[in-house]
Write a structure and sequence with these properties.
Pfam family, one: Mut7-C
Strand content: 15-25%
Organism: Gracilariopsis chorda
Number of helices: 17
Helix content: 25-40%
Number of domains: 2
InterPro entries: CCR4/nocturin_mRNA_transcr (IPR050410), Endo/exonu/phosph_ase_sf (IPR036691), Endo/exonuclease/phosphatase (IPR005135), Mut7-C_RNAse_dom (IPR002782)
Structural class: alpha+beta
GO molecular function: 3'-5'-RNA exonuclease activity
Number of strands: 23
CATH class of the largest domain: Alpha Beta
Region (Disordered): 418-444, 449-468
CATH architecture of the largest domain: 4-Layer Sandwich
Radius of gyration: 29 Å
Amino acid sequence: MSEITPISVISWNCLADSYAQGTTVGKRKNCAHLISWPQRWRRISHILHRFDADLISLQEVDHFESHFKPFFLKSDYNVRYVQRPGREDGVLIAFKKDKFDLLCEDSVHFDELADVKTLQLPLSTRNKLKRKNVALILALRKKTFIMGGEAICGLSFSIASTHLYWNPLAPHIKLSQATYLIKRIALVHEKFSKPLVASILAGDFNSLPQSQTYRRIMRGTAFPLDSEAVHDACKHLVLSYKPGEPVKFLCDSTLTRMMRWLRLLGIDVTLEDNYSEQRRSEYNDFSILFEQAREQRRVIVTTSTSMLRRSTCPEVFVVRPSSESLESQISKLLNFYNVELNESSFLSICGKCGGAIESCEADDCRLEGKAIPRDRPMYVCIKCFQAYWNGDSDSAVSARALQRARTLFAYVQAERMQNQQSRETSRQHTTRSRNSQCSKLADNLPEMKQDRRSVLRSSGTPRSNRELSRKEWLRYTSALMESNEQEPEYTNVNGTFRGTLDYIFVAGSCVVSSSMVVSGTSGCKQRKSFPNIDWPSDHMMLHAEVILQPVRSGRLPLARSSTFTL
């Protein structure tokens, strides 16, 4: 293998057998054959054998000893594996025996973040960092080859495989894990007197391209995370409404009063039905509520944060009734979605069913049989035919409803004006609490001990161990972004969720010659969800070819060259 021969790299979350039951397909009674391990393993092994990549990075790997290890050894690969503590799955890296020599390996357990004493984190924060996620780093050297009758020593590089924390409500944990992993990779590079020319970082990062985790890896920096990350986390979800159209809401069964007050303002809002509430409370089944939100293009308003952990969850806004007044909750909701309020819309929505209210004559057939006054203007709901009219006193229902609407309107407008005047200052002061701990993790990770037990072997001469500054971090480029000028539309399909969570990043002196996303022959447009009969995982496979180049400056460059000439 010459230095200009591309190295083929595969990264794939192949869906652990222990997690297959929890996918959208796995929950269907008639789809057991699609998630059975013997069936999926035949397809997984066939796909890996077909692509025959030089380097293979896999996540969610279980059945390692019984299936994956024998398969790779039989296929002339060396394979290294690290299992998650207390879990059945882990990550692995396989590399061809005839093309690479192993220089060293480092197993990364992200729970170590909680034990970093110099950060002085509170106990509650340390416990939240223990998510049993892992990564594996290998330093490899290409085999010596003959060129012009002379033996040429191959270039050395590192490759890392990882699977970051999944929860969309915890972007600060994923950001901390990514930061820690990058520093661990840099420390592996520091162990060799002859520099490793490149770094390949592959895996399931559970982070979208617009996330701060992605930004940290690509640029070496990240913006502070807002302490109200519970709402920012919703941005990864499929929006239930089109930008520009009036926002409609769907309140869960615990927010009946909020629904009624929103209707007073003329806002289109409906309530979760009894059957949906029963399925959600008794069986933890959110599918009916989610389907209603998508069909009616509504934003769900709820008190349940557990709802956000579902990959099929549509747009959600979480309220906290125990800590805030109802007026404050409504104000935050309307200001978050920038809902325009108009006094002419007050009392224009039926409080009973949510239908529109229109004026009518007293002898309208829709009012037939109702006990109504005949001496004043009448109004009727076009949906349920509920009759409305204005009372004679300030204590009448209509007068009290109008007064409530005006009070809410004034409250929302006052808070909106205050937010506009102090938005920048407010954002600076609210970026605190748990995310300030993330800044500590990002900026003050201490120097790793040189005699780490996780570093098993090293054939190079160790350099002096010193703490890496921010400027010396490796800066990565996405392989698919480099060759296609954009990230793929999605790499994970589970129910209605489609998003890009998997990446192959490269840094140092190497060039991406090609890259692609691999899925089943039927494709996502014909298959509603993965895994299916053609594809054994809910994640797509990423494939890239990279070409290593010698480092002329004597150490690993910070920014990767974007051009390559023979």
